[in-house]
Design goal:
The protein has a single domain, classed as Ribosome hibernation promotion factor-like (Double Stranded RNA Binding Domain). The protein is built from two helices and four strands. Helix 1 runs parallel beside helix 2.
C-alpha cells in the first residue's frame, strides 16, 4: 500500500498462510511507523510464514526486508501468534533504522584531522 506521496511501497506476502484483509491492514498500520521514521525507504517486504512442523511457540515466522539507499536491512522473528510476530518484526526493524540513523549522525559529527606538510601558512598580524 502506498502512502500519500507514492514514493514508498509495502509488499506483504504469505507462505503456507492465507492473508486475510484484516491481517494485511494490520501490517500496513504497523509499517507506517517505519515510513514516518525514515523518509528514504524505497520498499518494505514482509513475508508471513506458518510452519506447522515447528513447535507451538515458534509456529509463525515473520521476515522483513527494508530496501533503502545503501545496504538493505533484513530480519526474522518467530512467535506463537501471527500478530505478535508482526509486532516483534516492526519493533526490530525500527531499532535497526534508529541504530543506522545514529551511526550516520555520529559519523557526520566526527572531526577529521587534516595534516598539512610542507605548506606555509600566512602569519596573522
Amino acid at each position: 500500500m502506498n502512502n500519500q506521496n507514492n514514493t514508498h511501497e509495502l509488499i506483504v506476502s504469505g507462505i503456507h498462510l492465507d492473508l486475510t484483509p484484516s491481517l494485511k491492514t494490520y501490517v500496513y498500520e504497523k509499517a507506517e511507523r517505519l515510513f514516518r521514521h525514515e523518509e528514504r525507504i524505497v520498499r518494505i517486504r514482509v513475508e508471513l510464514e506458518c510452519d506447522r512442523k515447528q513447535t507451538v511457540d515458534q509456529k509463525f515466522i515473520a521476515k522483513g526486508r527494508i530496501e533503502i539507499q545503501g545496504p538493505d536491512m533484513n530480519c526474522t522473528v518467530q512467535s506463537d501468534d501471527c500478530h505478535k510476530s508482526i509486532d516483534l518484526l516492526v519493533d526490530k526493524l525500527d531499532r535497526m533504522l534508529r541504530r543506522r540513523s545514529r551511526y550516520f549522525k555520529v559519523r557526520r559529527h566526527l572531526l577529521h584531522g587534516v595534516e598539512l606538510k610542507d605548506v606555509e601558512l600566512p602569519k596573522a598580524s
